[in-house]
Amino acid sequence: MSIEKCIKERRSIRHFKHKPVDMELVRELLITATYAPSWKNGQCWEFVIVQDPEIAHKIQAAVPEGNPSYAGILEAPMNLIVIGNPEQSGDLGGKQYYMADAAMATYAFMLAAEKHGLGSVWVGWFDESLVAKAINLPVGKRILGILPFGYPNEEGTFKGRKALDEILQLDKY
User: Is the dihedral of CA 121, 127, 132, 138 positive or negative?
Assistant: First the structure.
């Protein structure tokens, strides 16, 4: 699958088959994610794979029931908790780069998962303190997202994209 096809055809998947994902494949996906760019090569991301149903229930309790991905947290065989370490990254002009760095690694993971027939969705609406408690997160680190992932039990929908003319300016805004 070409990178363009992978990017254009990836969809947010919120419902998953009850089929385990091989841990060796997960390790491959995570290694791919670590090749994402980061500010000054800080690589300030960390990950926790949650496959224990008891911990998954605690994570789901941190997500509002109105979140479209709520059910997927328990349906997915695994949840990837994306962690950023602000102390390993820079802050320039009030921009904390650990957030962008971890986001790029997460997207690399999502694309690699797509290439291998796995679906995922980035969950960003959650109570960070509850997730941190569930995974025993050390003080000073931040949880940036929860990614339920596994074999899709739905197609996902394409919601369209803005036309390039709506978002592109040349030379000046």
Answer: positive
